[in-house]
Structure formats: structure tokens, C-alpha cells
Design goal:
Layout (H helix, E strand, L loop, with lengths): L5 E6 L2 H17 L5 E5 L6 H7 L4 H4 L5 E5 L1 E3 L9 H8 L11 E2 L8 H16 L13 E4 L24 E4 L10 E4 L1 H5 L3 E6 L5 H8 L5 H4 L5 E7 L11
Parallel strand pairs: 1-10, 2-3, 2-6, 3-5, 6-9, 9-10
Antiparallel strand pairs: 4-8, 7-8
Helix pairs in contact: 1-2
Bound molecules: 6-phosphogluconic acid.
């Protein structure tokens, strides 16, 4: 199923978003048996969710042994750098739970170039998936988390970037970020991110309200171009939600 139909859900605040996202993540994992892949994201917005996953009941009940954690985009900095997206996820939850080291699929960002790192990560994704081509009937991920940048970017897909039109590569290097932090990036492409049973955008805070209104109006911005083979859900807090969506 190609689900470009968006479900927009407005909740009270960032904690409510985190709680809802954690429930969805758990439910998506529970729909599977055997190894399952989740694609997480960087930025500040997912931090409350990650903190929640390190606490009960998730800490004790998620099937960590069969859950594999991939990252949708990464800043091209060493793994221990405070800017590292996977580094943040490790600090907030992956290092605090029983996730086996081999289930944490970080990008190789300490050597070479963003493009070389992209090639390596593409191979890693293909190895997990067991095929070189994505089959719309068999999504790579059970859940893909996404954020929204102030310029309308998502993952490291910035406005007007050629990477937005990439259809062959699963992962690409981005030599120049469109927004701070201005370090090169590595990002999954739109078709790869779309290969999921559910794509879940997490958007919180008043500073996101203006750009969110433009994305929800389907202006030509990267986040508006994101699609999903399965469900496409936008979780907004009341501060971020444009008036017509705030339910108030
Ligand atoms: C990154 C992200 C990026 C992020 C948005 C939103 O590496 O910066 O993956 O796409 O999701 O910029 O960031 P905030 O959640 O911090 O607003």
C-alpha cells in the first residue's frame, strides 16, 4: 500500500507525543516476529521518546534481542562527538537497555567521505533486508521516525538538494548541510525512508508552527515529499500545531 494520506494527531505536549510514539513503536514491533528494523532520527524532538524507552515498561518488555536500530541521517562527525545522532540515541536509551551491540547500526563517520560512508551503510541495510531492491510489499522498516527542520528539511534532505530526487541509491552523502550544524551529513533517501509500515513525524514547539503550516499545506518542501508504503502519521504538540489543526 502506498500511503500518502497523512494522519495528523495533535496532543498536549512533548511528553504526550513521546508516550504516544512509544506505544506505536511497541505495537509495530509486536506485529512482527524475528528480526525487526526501526529507523530512528536525530534532532531534539525525539529526545523525550528516547528517554522513555530507557524506562519501564519499555526497558523490560521491548524485545531488544530481535530489534535492530538504524539511523535515518547522521552528521559526519566521530561517534563520540556530541553532535552525533546515533551518539545521542545511545546516551538516551540504547546504552541503557539490553540492546545487543550488533543490533545498533551506526554509520561509519570517522574516516573517508560522506559518500563512502553512504555506500557502506547502504550495504549494511541491504544485508539486513536480504535483497538489493526494495519490494513495496515487504517494507524494510517497521517504523521510521522523522523530524522537521525550520527550513522544511527532514532527515538530511534539505530544500532544493539533488538527493531529494535520488531513486537508485538507498543512502547518499551530503557535503553541505542547509542548516546548522554545518557539518557534512549522510542520509537515507526518500524511497528508503518510505519502505516502512509506519512513518512517524514528531514535531514539537512553537518555533515549528510556521514551517509546519507550510508543509501541511503541501508546499514543495522536503518534509512534504516524504511518503510511506504504510501509514504516514504526524504527531504534533499543541504549540507546534497550526490553528486549523490544533483542535481548540
Ligand atoms: C538532524 C536531523 C534533522 C532533524 C530536524 C529537526 O540530524 O539534525 O535528523 O532532520 O530531525 O532538524 O530537528 P529538531 O528535532 O532538533 O528540531
Amino acid at each position: 500500500m502506498t500511503g500518502n494520506k497523512r494522519t495528523i494527531i495533535v496532543l498536549s505536549d512533548a511528553q504526550a507525543i513521546a508516550a504516544d510514539a512509544a506505544t506505536r513503536l511497541q505495537a509495530r514491533i509486536a506485529q512482527t516476529s524475528g528480526p525487526v528494523a526501526i529507523c530512528i532520527t536525530g534532532g531534539e524532538s525525539p529526545a523525550p521518546l528516547y528517554a522513555l524507552l530507557a524506562c519501564e515498561p519499555y526497558r523490560g518488555t521491548l524485545p531488544w534481542h530481535r530489534t535492530h536500530w538504524f539511523i535515518g541521517d547522521e552528521r559526519f562527525v566521530p561517534a563520540h562527538d556530541p553532535l552525533s545522532n546515533m551518539g545521542m540515541a545511545r546516551r538516551l536509551f540504547l546504552d541503557r537497555v539490553d540492546a545487543p551491540a550488533e543490533n545498533i547500526h551506526a554509520m561509519e563517520t570517522s574516516a573517508g567521505t560522506p559518500t563512502a560512508a553512504a555506500r557502506l551503510y547502504e550495504l549494511e541495510l541491504k544485508r539486513f533486508y536480504g535483497r538489493d531492491e526494495l519490494d513495496p510489499g515487504r517494507p524494510l522498516f517497521a517504523l521510521v521516525l522523522m523530524g522537521l527542520g525550520a527550513d522544511g528539511h527532514t532527515a538530511s534532505l534539505f530544500p532544493h538538494a539533488p538527493s531529494l530526487h535520488e531513486r537508485q541509491r538507498w543512502v547518499v552523502g551530503v557535503n553541505e548541510a542547509g542548516l546548522a550544524p554545518f557539518v557534512p551529513r549522510v542520509t537515507l533517501t526518500l524511497p528508503t525512508l518510505a519502505s516502512t509500515r509506519e512513518m512517524l513525524f514528531l514535531v514539537t514547539g512553537e518555533e515549528k508552527r510556521a514551517i509546519l503550516a507550510r508543509v501541511l499545506a503541501r508546499e514543495d518542501l522536503p518534509a512534504s515529499c516524504a511518503y510511506s508504503q504504510g501509514a504516514l502519521v504526524w504527531l504534533l504538540d499543541r504549540a507546534a500545531a497550526p490553528e486549523e489543526h490544533d483542535g481548540g
